[in-house]
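Give me the fold.
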Amino acid sequence: MSKSANEMSLKAALALGAAALCAPSVVAAAQAGEGPGASARDEIIVSARRRDEAIGDTPLAVSAFGEDIMEAGALDEIGDIVALSPNVSFEPGGDFVSSNIAIRGVSRERSTEEPGVGVYRDGVYVGGPVTTLSDLYDLERIEVLRGPQAGLYGRNAVGGALNIITARPQFENSAHIDIRAETKGRQEVVGMVNYALSDKAAARLSAKFVNQDKGFVRNAFLHEELDAKENVSARGRFLWQPTDDLELLWTAAYRKDEGQTPGVYGVTSDPRQLMFNTETPFESEEYQLYQELNWTLGAGTLTNILSYRNIEVFQQDDTDFSSAYLQTSTRDISLENFFGELRYASNSEERFRYLLGVTALKEDSFYDTDFLISVGVPGLGGFFPPDNGGLVGDNLDSVLFDLDNDQELFSIAAFAEVSYDLTDRLTVDASLRYTRDKRDVVFDQMTPGCTACIFIVGRSLDYSVATDPVFSNWSPSGTLSYKATDDVLVYASVSTGFKAGGINEGASRPEYLPFDSETSLSIEGGVKAGLGDSAQLALAGFWQRRKDALISVDESVLDPSFPAGVNGLGINAGRIESLGFEAELSANPLEGLQFNAAYGYLDATYDEFVVPLPGGGEVDYSGNQVPRSFKQSFSLNSLYTAPINDWLSLYGYASYSSAWDGFQDNANAIASDKPELLNLRLGFEGESWRVSGYVNNLQDNRYITYQIGGFVQRAPGRVWGGRIEKSF
């Protein structure tokens, strides 16, 4: 056996053994029965495998957040959700449209790169380079699936998947309003109205409005609050069930964000005294229409999902981060996509179960990015005519870099999953997916009027490229699960992931534009155990290898003649290996108390990553920790309700999350800040109302969330607020 095969076997055994070693104590605890004060507990139902099943019976690592915890904790920001999952982190990115969810060290390096986590809302794929997650409201639950999920979730599920399930119309009349006021001039209103039109039809309308006047980052030069924003979101849903075997659900959603592009500034800068001479407006508007059909047909259910989505984005940045007229950038993005999925699932009560489906995605996108760079070199003014979009007010000539990226994507996939109960307690599952992505790309890079570019760089930077790359992949997976007792599930799985390739946003040479696909292989072992009626424990150990992972490097690394620090590129470089362990405990130790804890350990390193240096030589990053991954993470959240009398109760919610031992760069020279957060809520509630006060980030930890070189973004500081809720 080869050395690499031996290593793989050893690491696979460690991953499976980490969970298996815990099994005896878990089983013993489960058989011990209820402890004093234990109370009955309703288990969350998830649809992680495209079927509704109890989370304790789902043989994969999944965290689920139900309506009770999300409402009580006001968990309406994606960062709040993922911080409570082990080995999951959130990075807001340098804008509002390329937010990055990292699972088990899998993230993305470039804003034009496809994400490494598949994001779905009500079964519709909403991931991609333009991903907006600001409209989390009126939710039923959120599921975080950890590990490659290509079998059922397809493209880009290299690290895992995020399922956002919004509330469906109910056959009853109800309404709810939630009003919040916070420091920093923030007001938020969320409302919902549900109406039963008949015993076969129901409608639900929900909306969210956010307005914030101040914040923690201020442009003192232009007297603008960079945290100021306004968000309007609305969603209407109509459910029709003409027969017991057929239901149709139509949804129309709208979202509009206005504000400032998130402030990026020097590590030592005072975020309240930034001196940007350029305004940094941000606008994003999205429309979506989608339909879901569920039809009981024969021995199973036929499901059809159709969606149309349109997004328009505009943003402007002061990319020299100063009051000097040196550089600014603007970006216009338009995206239109059509998504469809058709699948048939057999009856889940049968011994042999199967699921068959096809998925199609057609997406047209256009990115128009302009970089305006001022040049104050004596004697070169004639090469940089100011009528080419010159920066006014400084008398400096300038050059415009205009990048037009026009893409059409057509992705089609077919998938199948089969499950067979070998015995009453032993089950084998297998899935297979074929994905084919075809991109038609027209890329234009123009420097109008810049005759000096040839003199400075040695060649023209103007070119046009038309290409139509095709990326395809077979993604198999398999799972063996065993019910050791009625309350204990032990499982082992092998799964694969696939992320399609693409092109960089710009490069001095056209051959530097494309990058290839990434694939991954993961082996996982886990135990899920019910500890009496009052608690549930989930353990998982895993090993994962990523091949051709995209790495960000300076273009001068590939071309020593190109100026350093001007442009970054994504390249497929080497392999990444990850080894880790996760534990989640959910319990009701006392009546009225709900308690959840999670711990994750992750060792994600470059197995092979050697970078050549300009002028000769090389840097070997092999063995270094993958940037923006933390070796350890821990979270704790608790909800407690105590009756005071027949009509009044006291309730409290607290959450704590932290992660440590991470780096921001490939060289592991810049250590990541510890994202430690403590949030508290305390209030009173009656049968149909709740009044509370709260504080977010009690410790006022302004940790760095995003960093490129010496420039950073920081998390918001301490915020106090009050909240009033009323149901009708």
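The chain has a mean pLDDT of 84.
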